[in-house]
C-alpha cells in the first residue's frame, strides 16, 4: 500500500487555521510590557508594579502526554500539526527543554517550580513505600511548595484544568485542593480514551470540581476535555479577570485509540518501518534547523529487533501502531485548533500567553504484553489487527517507535538519558518577541512556574513557609533581553525509580540502567555529544569528580532517598 499523500490527508481534516499577522503580536507585546508599570488591583497578592487584571495576560498551558521530540511538523515531523506549528511560527520553538522522565514527577515540577522530591512526587507510584511516609513520597503536591494554581488564584486569576492529573487520588491532593476553581480530571496515569474502563481492576478514577464522577461513556477524551475547558473559560470570559487554563491532554498516550474517522488517516505511511523512520526523522530535524547538519544518529539500541528481521505479519501490526499514534496527534492538533479558534472568536487570543509542551519523552511501555496489568488488559480488550485503534483495543507503540520519535537522543520515557527528558516546547503570545525564532537555550520544566508568576504579577512566598523555587523565569529570554535562563553553574539534579542524572552547564552525569549504582554514572558533554555516545568519565576525571560531588550535595539538599537509605 502506498503512503497517504498530502491531498488525501487534507480532505479528511478540519480546515487549517491561519495565524494572525505576527506584526500585530509584536505591537501587543510592546503594549503589555508598557502596561507592566501599572499597579495591581486591590486585594490581590500581585507583586508591586504588576499590571491590573485587564492588562495581565491569560495563560493557556497545553500539555501533550508522551509526545516525541521529532513528531510535530514544526520540529520537522511528518505528522500534520498545522495549528501547533502556527504557534511556533508566532512564538519561540525551544530545542533543549528538559522534563522529568515520567509523567507524574514532570507534573509536580511543572506546578511547583521545584524538584520532584521537594514537590512530593519522588516516585510515580509509591514503589512499596506506603508503610514508610518519607518526605518526598507523599504521592501528591507537598506542603513544602506553594502550588502555582493557588498563587495565580490569589492574584486574581480564574484557574481551570482538564485532563490528566496524576498527582494523587485523594481529596487532599486534588486539583481543587491546590487552587483550581473548575476542573475535570483523570486522576490515574492513563485510561481508555472513550470510557472509564482503564487498564486495571476498578477502572479509571475521575474528579470534577472536587467530586468523584463517572466519565461520559463514548466521548473521545481529547474532544471532551476541549469542550470542558471551553465551557470553563466561557463561563467567566466577560468579568474582566484573566484565566490560567491547564489543558493536560491524555493524547497521544497509550492506549492508541482514535475516533473512527481518524482510523485510516495514516494508512500505509509507516510501512517501511521504525529503522527507516528513525533515519528520516533525524534528517527532518536537520532540515527544520532544529539540530546542526553535523549531528549523527546515536548507536542503535541493540535490544530492538531490526525491522528487516521481522516477519510480514509482525511488520503489518507494528506499522499499524505508528499509524494510530500519528492519527492521535493529528486529532490532538485539530482540537488545539478548536481551542485557539474559540479564543480568537471571543477576543481572548491576542492577550493569552500560550505554552505547548510534552511532559516527557516518547513512551516505551507496552503494558498489553508486559507488566502487572497484562492479564487484565488481555482479558478485557480485543487487540486483534482489525480492532486496533478502537475503544475495545489496547495497544502501545513501544520502544522501537519511541526511539524513532526522538532519534537525536538515546532511549525514551523512563530513562534519564536525553531521550527520556528532552521534549518539545513552544511559547507564543504577549511578551514574546521575534516570532518564529528557534532557541537552543537549556531550560527545565521548573522554569515555567516562575515565568507564569512573573507574567501574572503574582508572588511566590518568601517568608520561609515553603522551599524556594528552583526554576528561573524565562521572561527575559522570551522578550529578547536575555540570551539564557541559566548560567553555566546552574545545577539540575534528579532521581526516580533507580535512574538519576545531574547536569551543570553542558556537562551531565547519569546512569543508563536501574537499579541505581553511583559507580555506574557516566559523564557526557552534551554540547559536543547530544546522543550521549562517548563516556568521558576516565578522560575527564576531574570534571567527573566535580559532578559526583555536586550530586552527593544535591541529594542531601533535595531529600533524595536511594534504596540503601530506606
Describe it for me?
- The structure is a single chain.
- By secondary structure, this protein is of the alpha/beta class.
- It has two domains: 21-486, Alkaline Phosphatase, subunit A (3-Layer(aba) Sandwich); 487-566, Arylsulfatase, C-terminal domain (2-Layer Sandwich), CATH 3.30.1120.10.
- The protein is built from 15 helices and 15 strands.
- The protein has helices at residues 6-10, 22-35, 82-90, 103-112, 116-119, 148-154, 221-235, 274-287, 312-345, 374-380, 398-405, 418-421, 448-456, 475-479, 541-558, and strands at residues 58-64, 92-98, 158-164, 182-186, 206-208, 211-213, 243-248, 352-358, 422-428, 437-439, 443-444, 491-496, 499-504, 507-510, 522-525.
- The strands form two sheets. Strands 1, 2, 3, 4, 5, 6, 7, 8, 9, 10 and 11 form an eleven-stranded mixed beta sheet that branches. Strands 12-13-14-15 form a four-stranded antiparallel beta sheet, with helices on one face.
- Helix 7 (221-235) packs parallel to helix 9 (312-345) and helix 8 (274-287) runs parallel beside helix 11.
- The N and C termini lie far apart (56 Å).
CATH architecture of the largest domain: 3-Layer(aba) Sandwich
Mean pLDDT: 90
Q: How would you sum up the major sheet?
A: 11 strands, mixed
Annotation field: number of helices: 15
Q: What is the element string, with H for helices and E for strands?
A: HHEHEHHHEEEEHEHHEHHHEEEHHEEEEH
Kindly name the structural category.
alpha/beta
Globally, the shape reads globular
Q: Provide the gyration radius in Å.
A: 22 Å
Determine the CATH topology of the largest domain.
Answer: Alkaline Phosphatase, subunit A
The domain count comes to 2
Strand content: 5-15%
Q: Percent helix among the residues?
A: 25-40%
Task: Report the end-to-end length measured between terminal Cα atoms.
Answer: 56 Å
User: Ranges with pLDDT <50 over ≥5 residues?
Assistant: 1-51, 126-130
Q: Count the strands?
A: 15
The CATH first-level class of the largest domain comes to Alpha Beta
Amino acid at each position: 500500500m502506498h503512503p497517504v499523500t498530502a491531498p488525501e490527508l487534507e480532505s479528511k481534516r478540519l480546515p487549517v487555521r491561519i495565524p494572525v499577522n505576527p506584526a500585530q503580536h509584536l505591537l501587543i507585546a510592546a503594549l503589555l510590557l508598557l502596561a507592566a508599570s501599572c499597579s495591581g488591583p486591590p486585594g490581590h497578592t500581585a507583586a508591586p508594579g504588576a499590571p491590573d487584571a485587564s492588562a495581565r495576560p491569560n495563560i493557556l498551558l497545553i500539555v501533550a502526554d508522551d509526545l516525541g521530540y521529532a513528531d510535530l511538523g514544526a520540529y520537522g515531523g511528518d505528522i500534520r500539526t498545522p495549528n501547533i506549528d502556527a504557534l511556533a511560527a508566532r512564538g519561540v520553538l525551544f530545542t533543549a527543554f528538559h522534563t522529568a522522565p515520567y509523567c507524574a514527577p514532570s507534573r509536580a515540577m511543572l506546578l511547583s517550580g521545584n524538584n520532584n522530591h521537594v514537590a512530593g512526587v519522588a516516585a510515580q507510584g509509591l514503589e512499596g513505600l506506603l508503610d514508610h511516609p518519607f518526605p518526598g513520597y507523599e504521592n501528591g503536591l507537598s506542603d513544602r511548595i506553594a502550588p502555582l494554581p493557588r498563587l495565580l488564584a490569589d492574584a486574581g486569576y480564574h484557574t481551570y484544568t482538564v485532563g490528566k492529573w496524576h498527582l494523587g487520588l485523594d481529596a487532599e491532593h486534588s486539583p481543587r485542593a491546590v487552587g483550581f476553581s473548575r476542573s475535570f480530571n483523570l486522576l490515574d496515569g492513563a485510561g481508555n480514551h472513550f470510557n472509564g474502563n482503564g487498564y486495571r481492576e476498578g477502572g479509571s478514577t475521575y474528579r470534577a470540581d472536587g467530586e468523584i464522577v463517572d466519565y461520559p461513556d463514548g466521548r473521545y477524551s481529547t474532544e471532551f476535555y476541549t469542550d470542558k475547558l471551553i465551557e470553563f473559560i466561557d463561563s467567566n470570559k466577560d468579568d474582566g479577570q484573566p484565566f490560567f487554563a491547564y489543558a493536560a491532554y491524555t493524547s497521544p498516550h497509550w492506549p492508541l485509540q482514535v475516533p473512527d474517522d481518524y482510523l485510516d488517516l495514516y494508512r500505509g505511511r509507516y510501512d517501511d518501518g521504525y529503522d527507516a523512520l528513525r533515519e528520516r526523522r533525524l534528517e527532518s530535524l536537520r532540515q527544520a534547523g532544529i539540530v546542526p547538519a553535523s549531528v549523527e544518529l546515536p548507536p542503535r539500541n541493540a535490544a530492538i529487533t531490526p525491522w528487516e528481521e521481522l516477519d510480514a505479519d509482525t511488520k503489518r501490526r507494528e506499522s499499524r501502531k505508528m499509524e494510530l499514534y500519528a492519527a492521535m496527534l493529528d486529532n490532538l492538533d485539530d482540537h488545539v485548533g478548536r481551542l485557539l479558534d474559540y479564543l480568537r472568536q471571543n477576543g481572548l487570543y491576542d492577550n493569552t500567553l500560550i505554552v505547548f509542551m510534552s511532559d516527557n519523552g516518547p513512551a516505551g511501555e507496552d503494558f498489553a504484553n508486559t507488566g502487572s496489568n497484562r492479564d487484565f488488559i488481555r482479558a478485557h480488550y480485543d487487540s486483534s489487527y482489525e480492532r486496533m485503534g478502537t475503544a475495545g483495543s489496547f495497544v502501545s507503540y513501544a520502544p522501537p517507535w519511541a526511539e524513532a520519535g526522538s532519534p537525536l537522543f538515546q532511549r525514551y520515557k523512563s530513562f534519564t538519558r536525553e531521550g527520556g527528558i528532552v521534549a518539545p516546547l513552544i511559547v507564543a503570545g504577549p511578551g514574546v518577541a521575534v516570532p518564529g525564532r528557534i532557541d537552543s537555550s537549556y531550560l527545565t520544566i521548573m522554569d515555567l512556574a516562575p515565568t507564569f508568576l512573573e507574567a501574572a504579577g503574582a508572588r511566590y512566598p518568601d517568608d520561609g513557609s515553603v522551599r524556594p523555587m528552583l526554576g528561573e523565569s524565562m521572561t527575559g529570554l522570551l522578550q529578547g533581553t536575555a540570551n539564557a535562563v541559566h548560567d553555566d553553574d546552574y545545577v539540575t539534579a534528579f532521581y526516580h525509580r533507580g535512574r538519576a542524572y545531574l547536569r551543570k552547564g553542558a556537562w551531565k552525569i547519569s546512569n543508563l540502567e536501574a537499579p541505581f549504582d553511583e559507580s555506574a554514572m557516566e559523564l557526557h558533554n552534551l554540547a559536543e555529544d547530544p546522543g550521549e555516545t562517548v563516556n568521558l568519565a576516565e578522560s575527564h576525571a576531574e570534571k567527573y569528580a566535580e559532578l559526583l560531588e555536586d550530586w552527593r550535595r544535591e541529594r542531601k539538599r533535595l531529600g533524595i532517598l536511594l534504596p540503601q537509605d530506606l
